[in-house]
Specification:
BglG_antiterminators; three-stranded antiparallel β-sheet; Arc Repressor Mutant, subunit A; mainly alpha; 5 domains; 27 helices; Mga helix-turn-helix domain-containing protein; two-stranded antiparallel ribbon; 6% strand; transcription; PTS-regulatory domain, PRD; WH-like_DNA-bd_sf
Length: 490
């Protein structure tokens, strides 16, 4: 469970179990001492918790004792996910957030009566989530219980809580009506706008926008941002979505709402289309300090590039989006805690180099909101690593030289040929493209995803479920799936 969500778990035992499971998911072999540390409990409590976990998950998992500690194995992934989600099915704070999102507001006393607990207990639980709300510059009111703060911040919280966080028993999914609207809008945006917002995220952005706006909550005006985007043909084409929304909801979004939604969707840029990104920068980069920042960043951070012009275009696009979001609210540039942790742990050298750059070039650090700089640096690190992964990898011609037994060499040659051929058959569809016909037409044998809901939805095809932020073990599992005979022995 993600950091944000754990603050909403009030049952101490449930919170320990979730932390133990998270440790097992990270490393299938854990000592009693390490589990006691991550769950902030004692070794005696761990023994009890392990027995209770075995009973709760039944045959979905195996937890065995060994000289190395406890050995954890998920035997039935879907059954495991269902049982894990059931752990927080009755958690009060998740119900409260859901009611706020759906504008079904109740007082703290009404929540106390519904759960047969005292009002003081409800208030104590609500105070537990204050640290999370402070991350979003929000506060809690109690009569009725609701979120107080800028509307754009409230929507950012809902996006992170329901879309970027782990799927739970309380996750709200966009209804069919929104899904149908998104199908039409997404196809139009893919055709006319050069952006890479996924269908799933587009769906959530639209759902949150419609749910909040139709409940009487409107985003704040951003005059500079509106002046920048509303004159552009991209925005004019995007604004046609009101015709489709009106057909389904008998509502139309005012300009401020359209600008906010446009920046969220249009700000999801792709690094695959240099011409498109160059055109994007030409139209939307109205901040003169971005170009010198990008020039210095390429000179000092991406020194090994063979195409500095390409990197300058892509980085200019990155910072143009950062600037546009800051005009709306700096909070839009913030990541969830897991993203920042993932970057620091997975790309420590690149992260330190980005940090060093902004320390040495303090004039660039002051371009952005101070609280946002760490988040921007994390996103920049991932963005630069994506550029390197896509463009810097040289294409290699591989020579296989096998000697020895004729039959062994023949087997190795056929295995190598099969492995290379299969390794090239990768598909990257968006979720709205998936159907039984798509799987059959492309002869799909394996789905690899880090989104648990897809593993459940497409259960007829073998599915490899990655962690939300894949690590070496996930990639090794994929290698094992692609060709068990060529995978390294464990």
């Amino acid at each position: 469970m993600k950091t944000i969500q754990t603050h909403f778990v009030t049952n101490a035992a449930t919170l320990r179990w979730l932390r133990i499971l998270a440790a097992f998911e990270e490393n299938p072999v854990c000592s009693t001492k390490s589990l006691a540390h991550v769950s902030n409990s004692t070794s005696r409590t761990i023994v009890t918790d392990i027995n209770d976990l075995k009973a709760h998950f039944d045959d979905a998992v195996s937890i065995e004792s060994s000289h190395r500690g406890y050995v954890f194995d998920i035997l039935h992934p879907q059954q495991y996910l269902t049982a894990k989600r059931a752990l927080i099915a009755d958690e009060l704070l998740f119900h409260i957030i859901e009611s706020i999102f759906q504008n079904d507001l109740r007082s703290s006393l009404e929540w106390a009566e519904a759960y047969h607990i005292s009002e003081s207990t409800v208030l104590r639980y609500l105070k537990k989530i204050h640290p999370v709300l402070r991350m979003y510059q929000l506060k809690m009111q109690y009569s009725p219980v609701s979120l107080v703060g800028k509307e754009s911040h409230i929507r950012k919280f809902f996006h992170d809580f329901y879309y970027e966080s782990e799927i739970t028993a309380h996750t709200i999914f966009p209804p069919i009506a929104v899904h149908d609207v998104t199908l039409t809008l997404f196809a139009d945006c893919q055709q006319y706008l050069n952006q890479s917002c996924s269908f799933g995220e587009f769906n959530y952005y639209l759902y949150i926008t419609l749910e909040r706006f139709c409940s009487g909550h409107q985003v704040e005006q951003a005059p500079k941002l509106a002046a920048l985007v509303t004159k552009q043909s991209d925005f004019i084409a995007f604004a046609q979505i009101n015709q489709i929304i009106d057909q389904h909801y008998q509502e139309v979004l005012p300009e401020d709402e359209l600008v906010h939604l446009f920046v969220l969707v249009f700000g999801r840029r792709s690094i695959n289309d240099l011409r498109g990104e160059k055109n994007f920068c030409r139209k939307y980069n109205q901040y003169p300090k971005i170009k010198p920042l990008v020039h210095d960043l390429v000179e000092t951070f991406l020194t090994d590039t063979r195409n500095a012009g390409r990197e300058r275009i892509l980085l200019e696009s990155f910072f143009t989006v950062v600037y546009m979001k800051q005009l709306m609210t700096p909070l839009l540039n913030h990541n969830t805690p897991e993203v920042n942790t993932f970057v620091k742990e997975s790309f420590p050298d690149e992260w330190r180099r980005v940090q060093a750059f902004f320390r040495a070039k303090s004039e660039y650090a002051y371009m952005w909101d101070a609280k946002s700089l760490t988040h921007i640096m994390s996103s920049l690190t991932l963005y630069a690593c994506s550029i390197q992964s896509l463009y810097w990898q040289s294409h290699k011609n591989v020579v296989f030289l096998f000697e020895g037994s004729h039959f062994v060499c023949q087997f190795l040659k056929s295995s190598a040929t099969r492995y290379i051929r299969r390794s090239r058959q990768f598909f990257f569809p968006d979720s709205n493209e998936l159907s039984p016909e798509y799987f059959q037409r492309n002869q799909i044998d394996l789905i690899v995803t880090n989104y648990a809901e897809y593993a459940a939805e497409y259960g007829s095809i073998e599915c490899l479920l990655f962690r939300p932020y894949p690590d070496k073990q996930d990639w090794e599992s994929l290698e094992q799936k692609l060709d068990p005979l060529l995978a390294e022995p464990s």
